[in-house]
Design brief:
With about 230 residues, the protein is an alpha/beta fold. The chain has one domain (about 5-230): P-loop containing nucleotide triphosphate hydrolases (Rossmann fold, 3-Layer(aba) Sandwich). The chain has helices at about 45-55, 75-85, 105-115, 120-130, 145-160, 175-190, 205; strands spanning about 5-15, 20-30, 35-40, 60-65, 70, 90, 165-170, 195-200, 210-215, 220-225. Strands 6-7-8-3-9-10 form a 6-stranded mixed beta sheet. The chain has a 4-stranded antiparallel beta sheet with strand order 2-1-4-5, with helices on one face. Helix 6 links the parallel strand 7 (about 165-170) and strand 8. It is globular. The two termini are about 30 Å apart.
């Protein structure tokens, strides 16, 4: 079975004036469907550049990227936007919710872009909110929800399109430690249901929830190791 994500010799060079900076120096890895992978590294290690390429928010200078069977390397802006909406779910540190919009409508947003009819959108969003434990909070606005609940709304929004991969960028960065554990427990539960998750984090205790850790330094991968899955202990 082909991996859901495959990066082969990916390089990303940024040009600033007459200077060039190589953020990624020929990285390669694959992720199978159903994996839970943490990408780690210090600031400037290349992990965020890698995440932007995985999320089709940036394109590599050279190398090949296949996402769920699609060669996305040569795609234009419109095609990449369509791939992002159909194949990927995003969870961000800052939640990125619309403040004046109830939870259920925040979750529906990817379905609006996908052209799904209103009644079907509502049903799918309701199901996603139930999946993250927010049944009964559908019409609460973000200001009426705790930080952990807001991140659950964001996770429901990422799930609603049934994406091939969820990309989580520092998903616990704005949460206290007990809420972080709650959210990571949710990611673990979703992963057990077969959902593929790739998460960027600089926090080792958060990375420990993933079954595999890929560590970046100076634009290269310095380790790629299976780890004991904290969420499956005991």
């Amino acid at each position: 079975m082909a991996p859901v994500i495959s990066l082969a010799d990916i390089r990303r060079v940024f040009t600033m004036g007459d200077q060039q900076f190589e953020a990624l120096k020929g990285i390669s890895f694959a992720v199978a469907a159903g994996e839970f992978v943490a990408i780690m590294g210090a600031s400037g290690s290349g992990k965020s550049t890698c995440m932007n390429i995985l999320g089709c928010l940036d394109i590599p200078t050279s190398g090949r990227y296949h996402l769920d069977g699609l060669d996305v390397g040569g795609m234009g802006t419109d095609q990449l936007a369509e791939v992002r909406n159909k194949k990927l779910g995003f969870v961000f540190q800052g939640f990125n919710l619309l403040a004046r919009t109830p939870a259920i409508e925040n979750v529906e947003l990817p379905l609006v872009y996908a052209g799904i009819a209103a009644r079907e959108r509502r049903t799918m969003a309701q199901r996603a909110l139930e999946q993250v434990g927010l049944a009964g909070k559908e019409y609460n606005h973000p200001s009426q929800l705790s930080g952990g609940q807001q991140q659950r709304v964001a996770i429901a929004r990422a799930l609603v399109n049934n994406p091939a991969v969820i990309l989580a960028d520092e998903p616990t960065g704005n949460l206290d430690s007990s809420t972080s554990e709650e959210i990571m427990g949710l990611f673990t539960a979703l992963n057990r249901q077969g959902i593929t998750i790739i998460m960027v984090t600089h926090e080792r205790d958060v990375a420990e929830y993933a079954a595999r850790q890929i560590t970046f330094r100076d634009g290269r991968i310095i380790s790629d190791a299976q780890t004991k899955h904290v969420g499956q202990q005991g």
